[in-house]
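Service request form, structural biology core

Requester: graduate student, group of Dr. S.
Request type: structure prediction, single chain
Budget code: on file
Notes: please return the result as structure tokens.

Sequence provided:
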Amino acid sequence: MKNQRQINKELRYYNRKNYYLLFLCLFLSELLITAYAVMMQSPTVLTILPEGGDSRKQVSMIFFLAVFGCGVFVVYAAALFLKYKSRETGILMALGASARQLGARLLRELLLVSGISFLGGMVLGTPLAFCIWKLFCIFLVNTDETSFSIGVQAYGISVCYALVCMVLLIFMGILFIRQTDVIAIVHNERKCEPVRDVKPWYGWAGILLMILGGVCGYMTPTLCLRLLNWYCPAWINVTYLPLFVGLYMLLLYIVVHGRKKGKKRWRDIITGSMMKFQGRQTVNSMLVITVLLAGAYFAAFYTPMMLSGSQKAIDERPIDFLFPYRQDQDMLTEEEIKALAESYQVEITEYSTYPLAVLAHDGSTQIMDSRRNFHYEYRELVGEGNYLPASEFNRIAKQDIEVSEGTCRAVIGEDGGNAFWLANDTTMLTNPVTGKTLGISFGGYVCDNMLSGKYYVLNDEDYMKISEGLTDEWRERLVAFNVADVDGSYGFAQELYRQIVACTGSDCQVTRMDDRIYDRQARAGSFGEYEDSGSDITISFKEYQSFYFKQFWKYAPMFRILDKTDFLSTYAVFLMLFLFISLICFAAVFIIIYTRCMTIAMNSRLVYEDLKHLGAGHDFLINSVRGQVGKVFKAPAAVGTVAIYLFYCLILYMNDGGRFTPGELAGLGSCAAVVGVVTLCIWGFYRFVLKRVCEKLEIR
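Core staff response, request fulfilled:
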């Protein structure tokens, strides 16, 4: 006579595949989240991504999507495990085991399986992140900035995720064991989770809600700023909720009404009915797959968009070498630069220098209270700007613009970019040394890609009047020249860049956000609570080759050959980070799809055996399986891909005031190519999974 312990052991052995499946699902979810967290909290990445910057927000947003997707995946895996655990539990209850005994035993099993799987995922998550990162270094770029580093905070995130998942597992186990009806528990394995019939308008309503949620979620923060003068907190993202409601409605419609019409509709009866009877599980899985796929694409679009837009802008520059410097610095002379070029066998052509003045301007400044509401107040001194005389601007930009006396014009890119950084409400300029003022009005914009977002243009007579008496500390000079052979000037460009940094004093070790006029007025209390214009960003001449220095140094040179050749190494961490995120999300998508399709095979095994006994043909069975597996693939792939591509187009369209720039159009073309490649990969994976499901159902 066997006791309960022996019977339970044999039942566990008989149902060991269910334990393996739960372990695999929990392990993979923890593995992916840990690897993501390790990369996201790496000091290497945190150094590159400034606090509050758009790139860090994007990384965090995709991480939350991944946590949501993996969390739902864990709940789904646990529900599946408990469903197949019901027969084992029912047998033990029939043999006299009490609910307390079964509950304690189930909780021990859940804690053991989840503890081992989560621990394994945490331990192996770091090696996984390290291996993927090193592969990127080998095949993309390997610099000092791309060294792999680990932040302790990552393991805190990983542990919190594991604890939350374990609490969910325990809660589900408690609810499961409260089913004291033996018959109900035994039949729980065969219980379907059908969805109720939905109206045909669910599909269109779902699409409309998705559009409404995407537009409202994206536009609400902007509208709060413009209409309410309010910096809305993070919870405002709840406005995206209609998007997810609409997505659920659309997927529900596809599962319920996604059957063929017309004379051949009978061929899809079995497939459609089985999908409908397993509707809740199917819709939930498809929802998670769609969300993760959208996050994967969003991260994957970062690289082609950056490469396409930046390379196009670099190629269209009219000047090969351009750099500014403050005139109180002991900078290289024209003779020294030409001698350096000669030592590298580089021929310099069209060498010119252009004077500019740093002047204070008035304007409205933003005053914010503790509730994140703000208003604007006028100040005579609000910031500094770089001002060129019109004649010098025409020489450097090879244009023939006119600037009327008493006006100033701001320089923006030919695509209209960078206008945000320039003041257009200036009515008075002030000489920061003599205090002399000049009444001025805004005369519109002029276009030049190299000077955009940094410079203003004054009438020549106005420039002479207001700049008189400026010391060299407030005067700058632009050096610009071309070379006969750009491709052969890389060594010269590197050495010139090094010597420019060496000739610059420590008082110029400032970022492009630093503003001496603003800081002076802020310290005097003109803007309320003092906040340094440079924020918490600091740079060092010792790290002049780093991305941070090249990106934020106020006097950073623009050398075509360096920017083009060193693009990958300069932006290596950005590119590798977003590629890593995309890879993790795609991996999660493929794992969830595979698990769901295998579950469909397990749930449909008896149905297909009955169909075989009833004489169903081979083609009918294959088409039925293809319909079920295809729906898990096709609907999320189509909806997720189209939705995220359109949302990405919306972001780019709104960023430039309601239009697409040529660089953005080129980037969108590259993103479309990425979609094509990923779609081919998904199709190949679909063929692989279809074959495995057919093997599981013994359909050759």
